[in-house]
């Protein structure tokens, strides 16, 4: 997405996902696509102030390296260095949930005295926390471990080494896998392995299955509704814990997963907070849904560029 200084999109392009490309092949393709995109936009290069990358996985923010796979033994390479070389522009990187959170802040929907969390539902459950107008970064800019909070002790094994993590019960992948175990739903989501679909074009097959299931749930299919709402309740419980620990007043839901199932998840999260949040008699907790899929994270990545240029004191050291 090419964005102007107000955070409005000027030009948008969507291309194929990683598939089975190696890091070197993928970076070369992205660099070429970025050069074409900037050229076709008609905006002179000296008017473009930087490139922001929304990354779904683990980041080393000091040198912009990302992990290539979501395993405990990831392969690291520096996407920031490669895109800087390809574009000739300053490049910043942030996790996708963090991009959406900063985009919310820069677009003026949130004031700097309002702390809030953003949950980003894509293949997993991303997380970002904004405090006093700054993104909370933790020790290594990898705050997104919220999806590895144990939600179902004794549940399925997660790649992180734990069991029953939020990722394994609340993500679109988890919902589809749960549906595949129900004979009455197998026709809706198909018997294909979700892990394989994820390696395809931007995970679009995954969202297709997830969307089909959510639509069936919304049309009154009880089995589909049970599977989706079970996932949403696990997330609602985890959000309740988070809101109680941090005394939050606002939760933002974004990402392609919430485009499909957002209203079901939002309603169950809001219900849990209304009836069980520790501070419910002092203040309510707003749960707001943002639609816009992947584009929201890409737009937010442009806000990360602005944030870095205008508030460098908030950058990680
Ligand atoms: Zn885990």
Could you please describe the fold and organization of this structure?
The structure is a single chain. With 317 residues, this protein is of the alpha/beta class. The chain has 11 helices and 12 strands. Strands 10-9-8-11-12 form a 5-stranded mixed beta sheet, with helices on both faces. It has a 3-stranded antiparallel beta sheet with strand order 4-5-6. Helix 5 (172-180) crosses helix 8 and helix 8 (204-218) crosses helix 10. The longest helix has 25 residues, at 222-246. It starts with a strand and ends in a 7-residue tail after the last helix. Residues 196-202 have low confidence and may be disordered. The structure holds zinc ion (ZN). The site of zinc ion (ZN) has 6 residues, from loops.
Q: Summed up, what is this model?
A:
This protein has eleven helices and twelve strands.
List the helices and strands and how they pair.
Elements lengths: L1 E2 L5 E3 L11 H19 L9 E5 L3 E2 L4 E3 L8 E3 H9 L3 E5 H11 L9 E6 L3 E7 L2 E2 L30 H5 L1 H9 L5 H4 L4 H5 L5 H15 L3 H25 L3 E5 L1 H21 L9 E4 L3 H18 L7
Parallel strand pairs: 3-7, 8-11, 11-12
Antiparallel strand pairs: 1-2, 4-5, 5-6, 8-9, 9-10
Helix pairs in contact: 1-2, 3-11, 5-8, 5-9, 8-9, 8-10, 9-10
The chain binds zinc ion.
Zinc ion (ZN) binds next to loops.
């Amino acid at each position: 997405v090419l964005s102007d200084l107000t955070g409005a999109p000027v030009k948008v392009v969507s291309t194929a996902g990683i598939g089975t490309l190696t890091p070197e092949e993928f970076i070369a393709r992205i660099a070429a696509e970025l050069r074409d995109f900037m050229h076709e936009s008609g905006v002179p290069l000296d008017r473009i102030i930087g490139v922001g990358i929304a990354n779904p996985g683990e980041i080393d923010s000091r040198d912009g390296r990302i992990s290539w796979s979501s395993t405990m033994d990831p392969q690291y390479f520096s996407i920031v260095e490669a895109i800087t070389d390809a574009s000739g522009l300053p490049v910043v990187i942030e996790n996708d949930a963090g991009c959406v959170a900063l985009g919310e802040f820069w677009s003026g929907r949130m004031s700097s005295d309002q702390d809030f969390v953003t949950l980003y539902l894509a293949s997993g459950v991303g997380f970002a926390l904004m405090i006093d107008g700054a993104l909370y970064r933790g020790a290594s800019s990898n705050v997104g471990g919220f999806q590895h909070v144990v939600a179902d002790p004794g549940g399925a094994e997660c790649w992180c080494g734990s069991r029953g993590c939020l990722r394994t019960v609340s993500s679109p992948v988890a919902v589809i896998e749960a549906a595949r175990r129900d004979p009455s739903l197998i026709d809706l989501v198909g018997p294909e392995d979700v892990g394989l679909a994820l390696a395809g074009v931007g995970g679009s097959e995954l969202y297709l299955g997830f969307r089909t299931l959510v639509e069936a749930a919304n049309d009154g299919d009880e089995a589909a509704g049970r599977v989706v709402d079970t996932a949403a309740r696990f997330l609602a419980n985890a959000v309740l814990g988070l809101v109680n620990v941090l005394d939050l007043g606002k939760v933002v839901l974004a990402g392609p997963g919430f485009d499909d199932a957002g209203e079901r998840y939002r309603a169950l999260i809001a219900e849990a907070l209304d009836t069980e949040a520790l501070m419910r008699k002092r203040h309510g907790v707003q749960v707001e849904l943002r639609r816009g899929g992947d584009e929201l994270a890409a737009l937010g990545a442009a806000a990360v560029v602005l944030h870095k240029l205008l508030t460098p004191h908030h950058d990680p050291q």
